[in-house]
Amino acid sequence: MKKIAVLDIAASKTGALSILRDFAAFIRDNDKENEWIFITGAEGLLEESERIRVIARPDVKASKVNRLKFDWFEGAKFLSSLECDVVLSMQNTLPKGNITGRGGRPARTVVYEHQPLGFQRAKKFSPFKKYEREYAMYQYLIQGQILSSIKRADRAIVQTEWMKEAVIRDTGISKERVFKAMPDVPELSEFRHPEKWCRNKFFYPAGMMLYKNHQVIVDAVKLLKEQGCRDFEVIFTLERADAPWIEGEVPSEIKWLGPLKRERVMELYSESTLVFPSYIETFGFPPAEAKSIGTLVLAADMPFTREVLGEYKNARFFDAFDAAELAKYMKAVLEGKLSPVSAVEDNTEHENAYAKIVRVLCSD
Asked: For residue 248, what pLDDT band results from cuts at 50, 70 and 90?
């Protein structure tokens, strides 16, 4: 039996919290052998069980100064006090300093790396531009802490092959220290209704981050209107106020529906063409989900979309920064020159991502 600490003070909302909760649920339902301690940034994020203990540290998350103190001076001592055999950081970085486990022996450390900003090569963000400033901080400042953490850790876990190659490239560590655990996409055949597909409906489920690249869709729609295309719509899962960086007037064909329930998102995959212009992702769930459902996908030509979509027959790739190329594909859809063909998602069985993480943690 091993005693394992899982550090994720940063997770408090959206994807990161979902991953943490899903991982804890997997442990609760499947691991009957090891003892787990989850360290979170707020009370009530996770439920305890027979083998799962939860320690909330809202004090660390209360301010950037507190987080800095924890990462640089206090974190290693705190983790050492738990006397764990293994420490898994799910927040991309490890606290500085030596972390000891039971009997004063060094604890084995593992970093789950899912922050692609500093590893991608598609965009250099500027600290002098209002809406790019936060991303530039990650790309140029926090990236140094991430690289240092990976170098100090015994193992690194990533979601995709492109991230594995980028981590090895930028840290110089051996490939044997980096493990890929690709996220699992649930079985979605219940939402596979090709008869509902509508060629004049496009869909982009994405958050409010700048690199989600809604701008290129807006520009493509403007080009389509100049070319005489009418009677179509593009659905965004945002409110207009959530995307202040979008320049110029937004055409009425763009529908701002705001956040949607997951079931409605799945239905829209079947009813529409997925447009996915994001140029920074570790994995990218929308293309994977759309592929599982069998719908048409227009995706930015990036390493992660190529990896997720593979040889999928209903995928077309465009330059993420070329609105004219995207408009060309959208026009082909509207004119009936491009439609989804019968395609079945690869049903090859893969090792569950969380099972692989547990195996990496517990291996000697």
From this structure: confident
Query: Does 170 share its domain with 146?
Result: yes
Q: pTM of whole model > 0.85?
A: yes
Q: Does some domain include residue 147?
A: yes
Whole-angstrom CA distances from 80 to 49, 67, 189 are: 23, 18, 46
* Greatest C-alpha distance within the chain: 74
What is the average pLDDT across 56-70? Answer: 93
Full domain range(s) for residue 309:
189-334
Range 140-148, long-range pairs (CB < 8 A, 24+ positions): 142/93, 142/115, 142/118, 143/117, 143/118, 143/119, 145/71, 145/93, 146/92, 146/93, 146/113, 146/115, 146/118, 147/118, 147/171, 148/96
CATH of the domain at 298: 3.40.50.2000
pLDDT of 88 > 70? The answer is: yes
Residues 78 and 118 in one domain: yes
- Let me know if residue 205 belongs to a domain: yes
